[in-house]
Amino acid sequence: MAHLESLLHVQVPVKNLEEAIVWYCNHLGFSLQVRYRTSAFLALSAGPTLMIWETDEQTSATFTVDHQPMPVFLYTTSDVHALHEYLQAHEVSITHYQNDGFGWVLKFFDPSGNMWGVIQKNN
Fold first, then answer.
1. pTM (2 decimals)?
2. CA 43 to chain centre
3. How do residues 43-78 score in pLDDT, each as one tens digit?
4. For labelling, which of 25, 37, 81, 113 has a CA lying 20 to 30 Å from the CA of 15?
């Protein structure tokens, strides 16, 4: 039986490809790897690449549990407080920022309505 070996990339929808590329690179530290007509690959220093797809459909990479939005992806950071301050200063919609026992959790929305989660584990 064949098994999965690794996660190559994740895909999210965006409303405006060019604006999304700039937003992810400027606000979250991604770098543009390659851009196509309706999609682009972005990367961080570690982990799978992020592929963003421009679409005019009303969709996002977010789901709900008990009517509460939840992020599909959770990333790690070494300074969640600085990231929170930065996102807050840039008027990003933040829905959760607290120490949840195992670590600090930050949840926010990108301009296309995708919810992102970031964790800084407690030592």
1. 0.92
2. 11
3. 999 999 999 999 999 999 999 999 999 999 999 999
4. 81
